[in-house]
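Good morning C.,

I know you're traveling, so I'll keep this short. The sequence:
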Amino acid sequence: MPFAETISTIRAALVSWFRQNTTTDALKDGAKTFGWVALLTILIWIYAEQRQRVPEPDVPVRIALHSSDTDRIVTFVRPHDEVPIIAMEGPKQTIDDVKRQLAGDKNILPIDVPSDWRPGVHDINIEPILRDAPIFTKNGIKVTDVSPKHIDVRVERLNNYDLPVVAPPTANLDGPATFEPKTVRIRAPEDLFNENANRLGGADKVVAVAQLTGDLLRPGPKTDVKVPVQLPFEGDNVSLLSSPTVQASYQIKQSNVPMDIPSLLISTLFFGTVSNEYSVELSRSTVPLTIIGPPDKCRKVIENSNTNQEPKPYAYVTIGPEDVKDLRNGARDFVTIPKRLSYQLGDPDVMPAADQNNKTVDVTIRRRAQ
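The tokens, ready to paste straight into the viewer:
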């Protein structure tokens, strides 16, 4: 067949095919087929991308120490060891899911500490423990690195201690306080208890303090009042095994107030044989005095000063050899000197006000006639 005729035949066949396959129906069918193929291709690409294993460095995980022995406590020597950093490898979507789980409050990976370890510091290799953690193995995640690989943990005994209950040292108690029960029981690490005992000066100084505050410190007696107690130290592993309150009975001294004694008798006290050789005259026989103390006790002192009831309060001056040295040599017949007053008020809780301690009286001392 001549070349020109061949070309003409091919052209006619192409035109016929194009006319047959570019009809409206044919184009619609082709578009539908292309759409499904394109969507399937995209889904396959997304799935393949998600299942592709990728590395993920620098992922923090939280770990917690666990011991089956309830009489021991295990703690981290270095607090930052609680959050080691791992590198892992796996499908991207799975890694993202696991990272979200690790960020949750409930996903703290346990590190079991053997119950037969003696108290002290021990080393644990946490790398194989984290690699075999279910959160990774069940999700097809491979842990490729752990930092740090080894951590130090401290094993301590947990002991029970009975602490005496005492009143706070600042309470203005009038007599001893009683508490029921007399002790409270705590559970605490042995090392922590010993550390505080050394700090306080002995195990007997580790006490629970009754919290006497507010109305509980008002003057007067208190009987069987419920009082909370405060432990001498705190910690995550310190627990109170007994009631947090006790029944307290005690009395608070009344607050000190100033009161005035209008007229307090002044007496003279002599040292040695001075009274046999010399006579004394005072420039006045009484002195006003401001006293300070609990109101009821101050009133009692004032009452006694006005009567002969014992103990009778008084002011006094003392005369000794140094006061008569100028008379002993015969150069003078008498001397007049100022003497500072002292006081005997009959109650240790009542005393002169601070500005009353410099009062004086003039004393004239004369040689007795022979």
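Safe travels,
E.
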